[in-house]
Design brief:
19 strands, 7-stranded mixed β-sheet, 8-stranded mixed β-sheet, globular, tRNA-splicing ligase RtcB
Amino acid sequence: MFGELKKISEVEWEVQRGYVEDMAVPGRIFLSEHLGENLELGAVKQLANVATLPGIVSYSLGMPDIHWGYGFPIGGVGAFDIENGIISPGGVGFDINCGVRLISTPLKRDDFSAIKRLINTLFATVPTGVGNVAPKKFTDNELEDIMNEGASWAVKEGYGIPDDVHSCEENGMMKDADTAFVSTKARQRGRPQCGTLGSGNHFLEIQYAAEIMDEEAAKKFGIEKDQICFMIHCGSRGLGHQVCTDHIKDIENATKKYGIKIPDRQLACAPVKSPEGEAYFGAMAASANYAWANRQMITHMVREIFERDFGVDYNEMKLIYDVTHNVAKFETHEVDGRKMDLCVHRKGATRAFGPGSPEIPHNLTDVGQPVIIPGSMGTSSYLLKGTQTAMEKTFGSTCHGAGRIASRSSAKKSHSGADIRQDLLNKGIYVRATSNKVIAEEAPDVYKPSSEVVDIVHLAGLSMKVARLEPLGVIKG
């Protein structure tokens, strides 16, 4: 595979123009030779296809967790000039604002031995799995407020503390949300699901900080060695999926209407400033806000359990940060020496803004944005910090996780969920899931090693290691 790519550095490879017809810019992939052994030809072609889209600037980018997806590869980043570029649902994905948040507690690993009891309580409390519903079904008016206000709505309603909002990317709310473009069907799917984990690779995990790599940044972020933390990974549930489904049809028509040539129908797109592009962006932003409220409500449930069962004060459980890894946003970046307003698509990629960026909390401007990279079930997760290098090379972007190397269907055929559960238990990791099939689908070895993925972005300077977190218990849908 690497024979077709030009080596730029130890972990940087170029997909040269001409790899597919009509590439306006080259592609860049951040990858080691070892992980490159599993690089899918289809993912490289998708990366090259993205480089043909109107208004793309600099490069079509692939992170080390890159794999084949819908339209854009997962682990893909593309930035488009707002004036003459496009927006594409394939560059965001169906789970709009799927994201991760990390919350610290004052507990230490040595003082904590009730993991089975805690995981069982969490599994009984936090709704998980396909079709599960939240304890509260929201009214139309409440849903409207959720889609407009995001995490701040949840905090205002008592599902959190004010500092939570400031510790979210975008302060937990995209201001350009336009609920007029969210369909009745999407609303019907969303009303009963805010405050639910969902299925697939989504999880709620109890972890401890096994290693601190950057003492100064860790202190700023509020994490110490051996500290008990919890991580939440989920998105906009059925509402976001329906929004994507609804708008793809309109965007496909817009692609033809505006005469946009695309190499793959899954790259259907519309000009950013077209009525169809603006409608999709408004509905996508509303879905992103819903996802932030969703993670906020789950955070509230977990804090209440820690407070009730372990005597931890609710306010002592600090949200370190919340990042999204499936979204398109308007951002200003320097391109060829001049500042440009861009529509940056991150699909399976995490924002990693460097020191001095006005978009990150002011108490962290000298350190950089917290970046959260979850592992696969049973493997390490990482807390990193954003960098100036990322701002220069990847529009302030880094990887989002481990990256699958096998499909869910093949994982179910080749793995036993019961065996994986027991193997993890033997390693001190207690897992609860809706079925053994779910565990088989998410077997650790169907993902790239998270440590290697993080090593690459660290070596490339896209985000730098701050702490390594190890799992103690996991719930999955």
